[in-house]
Design brief:
There is one protein chain. Helix content is 39%, strand content 25%. The chain has nine helices and eleven strands. Helix 2 links the parallel strand 1 and strand 2. The structure holds ligand 48H.
Amino acid sequence: MIKEKEITKLIINEYFNSLLSDIEIDVAIVGAGPSGLTAARILAKHGKKVAIFESRVAPGGGMWGGGMLYPVIVVKQGKELLEEVGVKCKRVNDYWTASAIETTSKLISAAIDAGARLYNGTTVEDIIVREGKVSGVVINWTPALQLGLLVDPLSIEAKFVIDATGHDCYVAKKIEKLGEKKIEGEKAMWAEMGEKASVEHSKEIYPGLYVAGMAAIAYAGSPRMGPIFGGMLLSGKKVAEEILKKL
Ligand code: 48H
């Protein structure tokens, strides 16, 4: 016999226990796009307690649509990070192509398999800054924010926070408000420069806060690169490795 109340109890218990155990974590990753998912997988694989907070219901960020909804991605660097999660890459001249749908779904499932916890429908609306260090994130239900409901958030303590929010660099903008730096935003497309810059500028921008992926591009004021994704993957790897040295 299937009982409605049992289904409800199972869902509430599972979610409640997961969130309760993630109130204090090693790394909070904001945004489940390719850079955040890659960072999460690597950190979790090394036994770190990692949670990803994603404002949308479906994780994956801007990768599902490939280029202009042709669901194919291109990489020139970082192909090994696709193969590590089992993506089939096809060599075409100096580039590699892969299905955007296969890539996105495998990055998500590999991060989860490695032990990262993913909270979808959950927006990071603020950060905790204590004694000059980012010490966690402030979360709220995305629908509550979208509806403009007056609902106070909850907070998660984290030793490190990664801003992997993409073009908006939402978390880095909180640092801008502390008067740290003027954020110029991403510049016009120049794929080669953008690919290089996405890795170069993925780093700690304030004690405890790292930027990765397009957030690093926007924070640094570098050119965008269009639908070539190797820099995003390598950027996630770079910040994960830098954080691993400190944990
Ligand atoms: C929780 C949030 C919040 C928030 C946003 O955009 P993404 O795919 O991010 P990246 O940087 O890993 O990858 C960028 C890539 O997809 C891309 O757009 C490229 C390469 N563009 C090049 C070009 O020239 O256009 O994912 C970011 C994720 C999204 O899923 C957002 O919903 C989520 O972050 N997010 N989640 N709290 N405050 N803000």
